[in-house]
């Protein structure tokens, strides 16, 4: 099941289902090595979403700003290696949207507990906006907000469920987006949370 929200914005419903066991095993290994933590925004606020990363580059935020870096600041070590099953899923989803040869070097792992949200923003910390972004939703359902190229443009509400995958490229790459405050629910495998994997070629 395939839905084009706008030019360059593709939703692939349940696309991650065949890889689910490997994704969950990979996730638990990563989180043992680099546990979820709440970054501070450059303005000094604690983010409601807890984050970790795997792959060569990890997205971090602190009083100095947002950036990608090779070292997990909490451990002083490189981020956990990106599991093969993560790379393979990101690559095949990107190919579905016409981005053959996508090789992610970064996977940001966002954990939303009930009440957590992500306000409307653009992803602008990557070097090459010609590279797509692939995102994978796991756990309880959330409402994704998909806006336009200006902050004030109207937003489309997109319900996202366990195993749904989205690919953002080309004209959609710099559109505003966010996640509505998560309602309380329980997923049989992941419990009372939503996890989102975001694959990028950041370097
Ligand atoms: C649309 N995460 O980490 S993923 C983020 O569900 C982020 O955790 C959300 O936005 C989440 O930056 C949404 C989907 C996504 C990612 C990047 C995009 C949608 C996008 C870039 C451009 C347009
Ligand atoms: Fe984003």
From TrEMBL:
One of its GO terms (biological process) is oxidative RNA demethylation. Gene3D superfamilies: Alpha-ketoglutarate-dependent dioxygenase AlkB-like (2.60.120.590). It comes from the Bacteria. Fe cation binds at residues 121, 123, 177. Keywords: Dioxygenase, Iron, Metal-binding, Methyltransferase, Oxidoreductase, Transferase. It holds the Pfam family 2OG-FeII_Oxy_2. Binds 1 Fe(2+) ion per subunit. One of its GO terms (molecular function) is broad specificity oxidative DNA demethylase activity. GO terms for cellular component: cytoplasm. Its cofactor is Fe(2+). This is DNA oxidative demethylase AlkB. It comes from Bradymonas sediminis. The lineage of its organism: Bacteria, Deltaproteobacteria, Bradymonadales, Bradymonadaceae, Bradymonas.
């Amino acid at each position: 099941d395939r839905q084009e929200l706008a030019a360059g914005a593709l939703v692939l419903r349940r696309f991650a289902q065949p890889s689910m066991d490997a994704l969950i095993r990979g996730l638990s290994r990563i989180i043992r090595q680099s546990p979820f933590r709440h970054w501070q925004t450059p303005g000094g606020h604690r983010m409601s979403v807890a984050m970790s990363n795997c792959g060569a580059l990890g997205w971090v935020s602190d009083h100095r700003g947002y950036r990608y870096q090779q070292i997990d600041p909490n451990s002083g070590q490189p981020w956990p290696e990106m599991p093969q099953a993560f790379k393979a899923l990101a690559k095949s989803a990107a190919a579905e949207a016409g981005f053959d040869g996508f090789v992610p070097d970064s996977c940001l792992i966002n954990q939303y507990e009930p009440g957590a949200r992500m306000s409307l923003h653009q992803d602008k910390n990557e070097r090459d906006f010609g590279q797509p972004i692939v995102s994978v939703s796991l756990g309880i359902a959330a409402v994704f907000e998909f806006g336009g190229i200006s902050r004030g443009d109207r937003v489309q509400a997109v319900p996202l469920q366990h195993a749904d995958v989205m690919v953002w490229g080309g004209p959609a790459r710099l559109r505003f987006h966010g996640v509505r405050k998560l309602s309380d629910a329980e997923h049989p495998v992941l419990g009372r949370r939503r996890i989102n994997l975001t694959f990028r070629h950041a370097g």
